[in-house]
Amino acid sequence: MATAIDPEAVWDLPVDVPDKWIENVDKKNSGNYWTRTAEIQTVQADGTPKSFFVKVIQNKVGKAMVSGEYESMKALHSTSPDLTPEPIAWGSFAQADHVYFFLCEFIDMTDDLPDVETSMKMLADLHKKSSSPNGQYGFHVPTLQGTIPQYTEWTASWVDFFTKSIKLVFENEERSQGIDEEVRYLEGEILSKVVPRLLRPLETGGRHITPRLIHGNIWDGNTSMNVSTDLPVFYDATCIHAHNEMDLAPIRPVRHRMGKEYVKAYFRDFPISPPEEDQDDRNALYCLRWDMNCSTLYRGNLRYRKICIEVMKNLTQKYPEGYEGWAKARGEEVAFR
Question: pTM for this one?
Answer without folding.
Answer: 0.91
